[in-house]
Amino acid sequence: MTRALIIVDVQNDFCEGGSLAVAGGAAVAAGISLVLEKAGDRWDHVVATKDWHINPGSHFSDTPDYLDSWPRHCVVGTPGAEFHPELRTERVEAVFRKGEYQAAYSGFEGQTEGGETLAAWLRERDVTEVELVGIATDHCVRATALDARAEGFATTVLLELTAGVAAGTTAAALEELRAASIETTGTPVVSS
Does the keyword Manganese apply (predicted)? Predict the structure, then answer.
């Protein structure tokens, strides 16, 4: 069995001080780094995803509903699009950028600079199992996990290394993950 860790959207704009901050984001970044340092040999491969917006249309709004529309975030070329400084990225082998011109929640919608998709990258390396961490539990982590399962990977979300936007949407996401036979461990950080 070959296992990969997928680090989802641990970017400045999604952490405290960012334009779309999720409470606990910086702690999640630090926690992922600690686990990579102490138990990183658990994964054969480590990859990451990034929201990478240029003009995603109605995904950005001056009056966001925080479900389908959001304040401007992770705009290409801004500090908000970069990985949070608490996240150590030495082990990250590939970064999959998503959402340049449309909303994109799943890392499986992204691609490397060279145009390779996440599913193709994992299959090329004979990955059979993925574990997910990152931000936000109820949006991009949820969507990436569901797509991982749909692509045929055994999928686990390490909830203790995720942060959710809101209690209600996080609870709904957890039910959706369980219904899709996605394993979960721990409890996510959720502020409200």
Answer: no
